[in-house]
Design brief:
heterodimer; A: 60s Ribosomal Protein L30, Chain: A; 2 domains; 4-stranded mixed beta sheet; 3-stranded antiparallel beta sheet; 9 strands; B: alpha+beta; 12-stranded mixed beta sheet; 2 helices; globular
């Protein structure tokens, strides 16, 4: 082989050899409350499921089957993901507010307002949601309208306390995100709430 | 005649209520924490990230050799990125009252910690993380992904 061709050929072969060592690792860990969920990792060659803490699968190609779950240690994963974990933000804080009737807060919920304001300042939060929720009793129109007007009322209370209006989003989840799961058409006052989420 | 007189005020009231709450909510999250070089690729341009920067569907977050970033999404999902990372939110729907729930993220490279939020709780089959070699279906709760 002539000299001009040999060097590029060597470089090409090295690249080919080292290029094949790329891989992807997927592991499952407990959440901050210690709960373990479940993941499935799959491609056209197959898939594996993981539902135990600190187990991982590795995939070395789009057509390579994910490896059977391997038990790793918390320490090993903490080390592997140290950079990402070091920048992890604090989880959003949720406050639950309840009403006597219309848009009047209960005395207990009124006491939460200064704590919400304090959390907003502590976190220098510019991303706050105020979300109305209902139970499964009553018509959708009535529930959406009441929960939304309650959310707007809470937003107004926060704005009057100095929180910038454009940092607060309001919406209603209706009956679709209950605190307590119930059947349809069930009166459940714990679900009839406004949640304030401070991020 | 009576129905017409009562319909108009109600319609105006409903419109006022919906306009009041509907303002500018294409936002899906924020960059909450960061160090070093972090940029967002969006609509053909790039933006230097800063704490509290708003995130939108389709955004690609890139961290440099010394960059790290922590993101919070509207449904409480918390995503942390290590250095030399590239990560995108391809689709995000968090509208429980309309039964529209989904979260699809893509990791091009880097190390990512992904803590599930309310979308995974309400619709555990609608959260996916795509990587170059495989897709992760996430029913909960805390996923760690390293793409070399």
């Amino acid at each position: 082989m002539c000299k001009i061709v040999r060097l590029p050929l060597i470089i090409f072969l090295i690249t080919l050899a080292t290029g094949c060592t790329k891989s992807t690792l997927v592991a499952l860990a407990p959440d901050p409350d210690g709960n373990i969920g479940r993941i499935s990792v799959g491609n056209e060659a197959g898939s594996v499921a993981i539902d135990s803490a600190y187990q991982a699968t590795t995939i070395t190609g789009a057509k390579e089957q994910p490896t059977a779950p391997e038990q790793l240690s918390k320490e090993a994963l903490d080390k592997m993901f140290a950079q990402a974990l070091s920048i992890e933000p604090e989880r959003p804080q949720h406050f639950l507010l309840y009403f006597e009737k219309d848009t009047t807060l209960t005395p207990e919920s009124l006491l939460l307002l200064p704590r919400i304001i304090a959390a907003i300042h502590e976190r220098t939060s510019e991303y706050i949601s105020v979300i109305g929720h209902t139970d499964t009793l009553g018509t959708r129109d009535y529930n959406m309208s009441l929960s939304l007007s309650r959310a707007l009322a809470v937003k107004e209370m926060l704005v009057r306390q100095g929180v910038a209006s454009n940092t607060i989003q309001t919406t209603s989840h209706g009956k679709e995100n209950p605190l307590i799961a119930t059947a349809d058409n069930v009166f459940e006052p714990r679900n009839r709430r406004v949640e304030v989420v401070v991020r | 005649m009576k129905p017409t007189i009562t319909v108009i005020p109600v319609a105006v009231l409903l419109m006022a209520v919906s306009l009041a709450h509907g303002a500018a909510t294409n936002q899906i999250g924020i960059v909450k924490t960061m160090v070093g070089e972090v940029v967002i690729a969006r609509s053909g341009g790039t933006i230097r990230a800063a704490p509290n920067l708003k995130l939108y569907e389709g955004d690609i977050v890139r961290t440099g050799a010394n960059g790290k970033a922590g993101l919070i999404l509207e449904d409480d999902t918390v995503i942390s990125l290590g250095t030399n990372g590239r990560f995108a939110i391809e689709s995000f729907r968090f509208e429980p009252s309309e039964k529209k729930l989904s979260l699809v993220a893509r990791i091009f490279q880097g190390t990512v910690s992904f803590i599930c939020g309310q979308i995974a709780k309400l619709a555990p089959n609608r959260v996916h993380i795509k990587t170059p070699y495989a897709t992760v279906g996430v029913r909960g709760t805390h996923v760690l992904v390293r793409v070399d």
